[in-house]
Write a structure and sequence with these properties.
Number of helices: 13
Shape: globular
CATH topology of the largest domain: Maf protein
Largest sheet: 5 strands, mixed
Mean pLDDT: 94
Helix content: 40-55%
Order of helices and strands: HHEEEHEHHEEHHEHEHEHHHEEEH
């Protein structure tokens, strides 16, 4: 029984005014030959074992607890105990192109990388992070030499690069809007406000985001956004014609420089004879143009909504970058 950990667990249960069970006491039981790593944000401690120069670390499974322990204890101790060659990372964020297509476009660039610099493709939802990892080779300014590789990368895939740092697509969009002094708003149907949520998740977004109209019902599309009844009758709610009028209406209604809009059939129901589940229509409007696109995503309701939001944000970034 590790008494400091037991006291820590007891304090947590006392703080939340909950009874402490015997199973909770067991979390303070640790192997006698370990060094206990204090878990400041949970009850299960980390454990550090060292045997003949090899280190084993046992961590709690809750992700935010594990991350805190890595930051507070594990990484600092590893840096002290093991002296490895310095490494540098350079990250390039891309969106709007799949991993395999990306790899094909930059194959010659990747093949020409120096032996001490490796490229990793790290796909995430709707984006691919390219991470260059350089290992010290005795030559000066490793990071500078890595950054010097980026202009050739931009020549091949510049239209898909939204940042050359660890950041999100919505944060990159915010920087573009601020730099150009523009405001933005959204008109959303199938995404139900997700695009607005992502844009406003960025600190300081009140400088450029003015508002959103979640026009789920056709009446709202007409009354709040000015979509014409004849457009809905002729083309339907899920159509490029309708979503273009939604984007244009949002510009007027919200008084913004640029607006984006979504409409689609998220599923699992709602398909028609001419439109499949997963059909999504997206639009972008500014003072000089309105553009629209149609996709058939069909990855299940939740993913259809996520992909629609990601695709619209990608469209928004591309248009802002082209201004």
């Amino acid at each position: 029984m590790h008494e400091p950990t037991l006291h820590h667990v007891e304090e947590i249960f006392k703080r939340f005014q909950r009874p402490m069970l015997d199973v909770n006491r067991q979390q303070a039981m640790v192997p006698a030959n370990c060094e206990v790593l204090h878990n400041a944000v949970g009850t299960a401690p980390g454990m550090w074992f060292s045997d003949q120069g090899t280190v084993f670390v046992s961590m709690p499974g809750v992700p935010f607890e594990m991350k805190r322990l890595m930051t507070d204890h594990v990484l600092p101790r590893l840096r002290t105990q093991f002296h490895l060659a310095p490494i540098e990372h350079v990250v390039v964020m891309t969106a709007g192109i799949g991993e395999s297509f990306l790899a094909e476009k930059i194959a010659d660039w990747e093949d020409a990388l120096p032996a001490n610099i490796k490229l990793a493709y790290l796909p995430s939802f709707g984006a691919v992070r390219l991470r260059l990892t350089g290992t010290a080779d005795g030559q000066p300014d490793l990071r500078g030499r890595m950054l010097a590789l980026l202009p050739a990368l931009r020549e091949r895939i510049g239209e898909y690069i939204f940042a050359e740092e660890e950041t999100t697509l919505e944060a990159a969009i915010g920087k573009l809007l601020l730099a150009q002094g523009l405001t933005v708003g959204t008109a959303e149907s199938c995404t139900g406000g997700l695009v607005a949520h992502r844009l406003t998740s960025v600190p300081g977004s009140s400088e450029y985001f003015r508002g959103s109209v979640v026009a789920y019902h056709n009446d709202i599309k007409q009354e709040e956004l000015g979509v014409k009844a004849e457009t809905l009758a002729q083309f339907g709610a899920v159509s490029e014609a309708t979503v273009r009028e939604m984007a244009e209406g949002a510009r007027r209604r919200l008084g913004v420089d640029v607006a984006v809009a979504t409409s689609g059939i998220a599923g699992p129901g709602g398909a028609t004879a001419t439109k499949k589940v997963g059909t999504v229509c997206l639009a972008y409007a500014d003072a000089t143009q309105t553009i629209s696109r149609e996709y058939v995503l069909d990855r299940g309701r939740a993913l259809n909504v996520e992909y629609a939001a990601q695709s619209l944000l990608t469209m928004l970034r591309q248009q802002l970058a082209a201004m």
